[in-house]
Amino acid sequence: MDKLFSITALMILLSANASAKEFEKHDALMNHGDGHLMDMGGAMVMGQNTDTLPGGCDEIAATKEITVHAGHKYAEKFPGRMWAFDTQEYKFEPCTKLTVHFVNDDSIRHQWMMHGLPKYLYPRGMFHLEVSGPGEVSGTLILPPGNQTYLVHCDMAQHMEKGLKAQLKVGKGSGDLPSIPGITANIIEDDYNEAMPPPVVLPAKAGATPAKVAEIEPAFISATMLIGLVIGLLLMPFLARQFKGMSVAEIVAYSVELLGLLFNKLSTVLVALFKLILPNKTKHP
Question: I need a surface site. Which of 11, 107, 130, 138 has the fewest CB within 10 A?
Fold first, then answer.
């Protein structure tokens, strides 16, 4: 028994160690050309540029390095957010050669993606760092000239909406982007109020009487439903006896026949009423 318990405990321990992914520094990526590097461990760099100057840059103005962290713990200071970068705003001189060390502190896939770069130099106009699970990957780009604010975010589904969003300003920037956690207000604010919102009342057109319609219509529906329920209850014993032992097809056929008989009876009654009414009208024009 003790031996069986020891073997079971060992298997559980080995399984836990196998499922827990250790932090991995991805520093041996394979170059696939056009600034695209990746490895089999789930790390990727797209838009790498270490030496080609963007148009308008005569030289590299400065050489900078930053370390950017992404993870769930950095969203704790932003109510309603699930993930965040440790920094939400970056500022650099135009034509800066920037190396970004991107650290993923979670056990899921995160990205640090910068949009709006010149497409003649950066494929699809972006610089992209990605790590699957806890790890670090580094990439380098040369920032364009001019004053511009660039979006930085994670492109995984719902990650940006849940907090993985920042802005990078080159020079003086071109203003602030919306919904940057801790920097600018959300376009759509979260509402945690449990109370139902007040009903939206549309303005009534001139001469319309919506109040009277609203009062009459529910009463009419209620009366109709009540009459139907009464008729159904009265007919239920009769129908139960009639339908007993019948198949579905037989019940349908019998119901159609009953409706036909009822229609004929109503037609006869209506014809008789018209005959009584029409002579009276001819006598009294």
Answer: 11
